[in-house]
Amino acid sequence: MKRVVSVSLGSSKRNHTVQIEILGQMFSIERVGTDGDVKKAMEIIASLDGKVNAIGLGGTDLYIYAGGKRYTFRESLKLKNCAPHTPVVDGSSLKNTLERRVIEYLARGKGWDFTGKKVLLVSGADRFGMAEALQEAGAELILGDLIFGLGIPVPLHSLTSLSKAARLLAPVIVQLPIRFIYPTGAKQEVSLSKFEKFYQEADIIAGDYHFIKRYMPQSLTGKMIITNTVTMDDVAEMRRRNANLLVTTTPEFGGRSFGTNVMEGILVSLAPEKGGELTREDFEDLLDRIHFEPRIIDLQEESRLSS
Q: Does residue 66 register a pLDDT over 90?
């Protein structure tokens, strides 16, 4: 049995283990949260080195992308270097393939028209493939990199403006501890009342769920959410806030959708001869063979049926 373990800086309350079969091979998939404790995460990753097929980095990014450039988080690189023998992945390579395909699938396969739709993408640098696909589909982007990453209430409205901002800020940002940029540990369990106007002016809210949840308003009436890494409790919470539709870019395993770092770990494990270095073509081929499809949930179906 192949084993993929996601070691996350997020809350341990979200831990989960499941066994699944993919392409005729059994997988044990685990998510281990360290409640924001970087030292503990380093120790766990080191203890797993050489003993599992792939290690995912959760609650952090190793890389962000903008304007054709890749920026590496210093703290995340330290985590990766704790496992010199086992592939360590953060999901960023998969985001540029899988999440791009999800938008194309919704537009072409499901006939969804993104033209003129206002999309709050909470971080374009974290989801550059999705951002490009949404822009190509005709959506009006509200990029929240400054808002959700730095707390600066200034939206960006194009990939060009994102690239310009990244050139100025990313070299500094990637030197900071992850906790200054991304909600880790107990911060993942709370929503603060802030930046509501950016949510309300959007038709679609997309990107990392913890960024979405960080300032998620009490009312999401009529909104579509495109995200991943959601539990059954998260789905119930979005339903309570009257969100209309949920799309998870990764499939459901055992009652929840795992992060892209887990999915990338699975794909890397299916091609051990690549040593963890899969090309975009490799990812595309494996995704075609597995037939991953996004999960689409009508969050208000019960209330519509009863009305």
A: no
Q: Phi and psi of 286, rounded to 5°?
A: -65, -40
Domain parsing of the chain, residue ranges: 2-91+259-279, 94-252+295-306
How far apart CA 9 and CA 42 sit, in angstroms, is 10
Is 2 in contact with 53 (CB distance < 8 Å)? yes
φ, ψ of residue 66 to 5 degrees: the values are -170, 140
User: What digits encode the pLDDT tens for the residues 215-257?
Assistant: 999 999 999 999 988 989 999 999 999 999 999 998 888 777 7
What type of residue sits at position 102? V
Q: Which amino acid is at 300?
A: Q
Q: Which residues contact 73 (CB under 8 A, 6 or more apart)?
A: 60, 61, 62, 63, 64, 174, 178
* pLDDT recorded at residue 305: 41
Domain 2-91+259-279 in this protein, CATH class? alpha beta
Confirm or reject CATH 3.30.300 for domain 94-252+295-306, answering yes or no: no
Judging by beta carbons within 10 Å of its beta carbon (0-12, 13-18, 19+), is residue 84 exposed, middle or buried? exposed
pLDDT digits (tens, 9 = 90+) for 208-226: 999 999 999 999 999 999 9
Q: What is the DSSP letter of 62?
A: S
Residue 263 CA to residue 269 CA, distance in Å, equals 10
Beta bridge partners of 161: none
How far is it between the farthest Cα atoms of the chain? 57
What gap in Å lies between CA 194 and CA 31, rounded to an integer? 29
Q: What is the pLDDT of residues 136-152, one digit of tens each?
A: 999 999 999 999 999 99
Cα distance between residue 296 and residue 230, in whole Å = 13
